[in-house]
Each structure stands twice: as structure tokens, then as C-alpha cells.
């Protein structure tokens, strides 16, 4: 399942609902649907080719900078939670 609600809303939704769904994979795709539908334009081709589309998005939508940090923070919390739970299982 692809969830395109934006960061961090989609990650929170996935975390809350994943075990209720009978699906093998669920992935947050952020604004990909907006870009694919043409609602939001893509970065210039040279930026796309150099993996710098995120820079273009950060300039065009400054609020996204916070969202990117929120995503990394969420991923860190998930990894930390897995480590802590695996350490508890060992004891």
C-alpha cells in the first residue's frame, strides 16, 4: 500500500494502522502523487539528474525542511524502539 499523506502524518498513520491491515508492505510516498499527477512541478532536469530535487523542493516549499527533519526523527525513533525491544527480549 502506498500512503501519500505527507510527512510525518503518513508515517504516524502507517505506524498506527499497519498491524490492522492484511498487507505485506506499506510505504509512505509523501507528495509523489502530487508530482506524478502534475499538480506540483518537478525540479529542473539537471537537478533531477544530480539527485538534488530535494534542494529544489526546499527552496520552493521552505516548510518541507521541517518535514524532512521530522521524517529522520521518526525513523530514528523507530530504529531506537526496535533496538530497545530486542534488548528487552534478550533479558
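^ C-alpha cells above, recovered residues below v
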Amino acid at each position: 500500500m502506498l500512503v501519500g499523506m505527507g510527512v510525518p502524518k503518513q508515517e504516524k498513520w502507517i505506524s498506527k494502522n499497519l498491524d490492522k491491515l492484511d498487507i505485506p508492505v506499506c510505504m509512505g510516498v509523501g507528495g509523489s502523487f502530487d508530482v506524478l499527477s502534475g499538480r506540483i512541478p518537478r525540479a529542473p532536469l539537471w537537478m533531477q539528474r544530480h539527485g538534488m530535487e530535494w534542494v529544489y523542493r526546499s527552496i520552493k516549499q521552505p516548510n518541507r525542511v521541517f518535514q524532512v527533519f521530522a521524517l529522520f526523527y521518526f525513523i530514528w525513533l523507530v530504529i531506537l524502539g526496535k533496538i530497545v525491544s530486542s534488548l528487552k527480549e534478550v533479558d
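The longest strand covers residues 2-3.
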